Amino acid sequence: MKERLPTVSIGLAVYNGIDYIREAVDSILAQTYTDFELIISDNASTDGTSDLCRDYAARDPRIRYSRNAENIGGANNENLTFALSRGRYFRWAAHDDMIAPTFLAKTVAVLDATPSVVLCSTMITEIDADGAALRTVSQTRGDALQAPARFADLMRKDHHCEATYGLIRADALRQSGLQQNYTDSDRTLLCELSLYGRFHEIPEGLFFKRYHAKNMYVNMRARMVWFDPSLRGKAVVPYWMQFFDYLRVLRRAPISTGDKARCYGAMLNWLWAQRRGLAGDLLLALRSRLAPQADPYKWRSRGEDVYNWE
Fold first, then answer.
1. Domains recognised in the chain with CATH numbers
2. What's the rounded Cα separation, in Å, for the pair 186 and 164?
């Protein structure tokens, strides 16, 4: 007899998330929509995360727990949860965030009813370290009818890419490059998904985004260590990595030549807006080449835990 697959897969990538992961998992298990699987990929945590997740998996058959033998980097771990998924729709979940009980029911309903929508998110309720609500905000992006307009909109730096925690059509994700190993690759992924369909935001704050000391980072280059721990202290060029990734996205995009030309025009605007970051990447790379034993950065992280972004 063929195994029945869940409609929704939720991928929760985690590294040393004992402080908040219980709340995150409980909010997922409390969903009124129950046809889902929860895939937890533990990135070789050294705190109590493993024991807690194994206990959850033993008590609820919808939970599948996997542990990496070593830390494979944050983006790779998130992509792994998608590789392990089986649902028609997919959602990434962070270990320190939560969702309201009706989040899945309402986002699934939109995707079921509207084939032109590739990603459905909700307004965001921002919470502090203790879970107290700070404000509810909208980050509506990618809802234009034309693909180039969606692409240009999502390239802008005036949003925090929280739509990546929306519900996404798995078929579209499979055609994308997923998240790459550089800071801000979630923005590139959203831009790529927007070329496959529109985004829709439900006007309710059903996604609870937590802000706390351990998920802050200094700048784009500092956060690269979250993607690849071996990069600590090395010169990295995230702005240029993103530039070439945008080129990859447009080369393989399922849109007309005219629409691609409009997207390339948006890239010219992006190049101008990011000129300082691009120049800074080149200067740091040059400094590292001329003095390879020196630390190429003026910044210093605030400790190991600053990269506990999962």
1. 8-215 (3.90.550.10)
2. 7
